[in-house]
């Protein structure tokens, strides 16, 4: 996918296309890359989502708002948004990352999304970045149910299964990738023979939560 197509998807056109190129350049490709932009983008996303939650749920307390934000601004949702934007098709990756499937790796994709948001902020200011983040998270905010979202996925899955007197899930670490300072974990969640899901994260716990969330979505969908 070309930069032109991506900008159409984003509904934003860069004045300085060099910022867009840098946001989509992984460190394995060379300099300038998107590592510093990731740092800035993470802060912008958290700020914009915090404002949206603050306005949408006026009676929720601080701790509940923090948990909702953590559920929204997580690797899973950022990875999904990156996939929706087809960011993997635009990434500049080193030869090794290309061969190992880096364009599909969740950690690389959600880092690129954060970098992209930072690039919009630097190119067009906070208002432009806020408009984009609000748009990217709009459907997820609409679907947000505090009664469910305030519980982490593993807790929700366990309670759902217990209420139906079904066996509890088993979590197995199936893979660990990356260097020591930037590892990515992959965990399989097995509920029964028909429900096996996998999740990835920057810690084993995060990967377990991601796999539990996927299992919960599948079970709820099948129960409808």
In short:
The protein has 224 residues and is mainly α. The chain is built from eleven helices and three strands.
Write up this protein.
By secondary structure, the chain is mostly helical. It has two domains: 3-144, Ribonuclease iii, N-terminal Endonuclease Domain, Chain A, CATH 1.10.1520.10; 153-223, Double Stranded RNA Binding Domain, CATH 3.30.160.20. 60% of the residues lie in helices and 11% in strands. The chain is built from eleven helices and three strands. The chain has helices at residues 3-10, 17-23, 35-56, 62-72, 75-84, 95-99, 106-124, 126-142, 146-149, 153-163, 204-223; strands at 170-177, 184-192, 195-201. The mean pLDDT is 91.
Which architecture name of the largest domain does CATH use? Orthogonal Bundle
Oligomer: single chain
CATH topology of the largest domain: Ribonuclease iii, N-terminal Endonuclease Domain, Chain A
DSSP helix fraction: 55-70%
Structural class: mainly alpha
Strand order of the largest sheet: 1-2-3
Return the average pLDDT rounded to an integer. Answer: 91
How many individual helices?
Answer: 11
Unreliable parts: none
The CATH class of the largest domain is: Mainly Alpha
């Amino acid at each position: 996918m070309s930069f032109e197509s991506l900008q159409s998807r984003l509904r934003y056109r860069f004045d300085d296309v060099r910022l867009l190129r840098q946001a989509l350049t992984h460190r394995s490709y060379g300099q300038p890359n998107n590592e510093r932009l990731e740092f800035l983008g993470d802060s912008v996303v958290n700020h914009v989502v915090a404002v949206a939650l603050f306005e949408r749920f006026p009676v929720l307390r601080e701790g509940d708002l923090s948990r909702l934000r953590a559920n929204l601004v997580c690797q899973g949702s950022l990875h999904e948004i990156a996939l929706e934007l087809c960011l993997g098709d635009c990434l500049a990756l080193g030869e090794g990352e290309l061969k190992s499937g880096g364009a599909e790796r969740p950690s690389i994709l959600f880092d690129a999304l954060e970098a992209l948001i930072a690039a919009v902020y630097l190119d067009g200011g906070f208002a432009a970045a806020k408009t984009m983040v609000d748009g990217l998270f709009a459907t997820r905010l609409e679907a947000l149910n505090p009664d469910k979202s305030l519980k982490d996925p593993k807790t929700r899955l366990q309670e759902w299964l217990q209420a139906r007197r079904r066996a509890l899930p088993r979590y197995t670490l199936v893979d660990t990738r990356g260097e020591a300072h930037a590892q990515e974990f992959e965990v399989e969640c097995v509920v029964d023979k028909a429900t096996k899901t996998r999740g990835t994260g920057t810690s084993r716990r995060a990967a377990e939560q991601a796999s539990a969330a996927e299992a919960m979505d599948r079970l709820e969908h099948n129960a409808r």
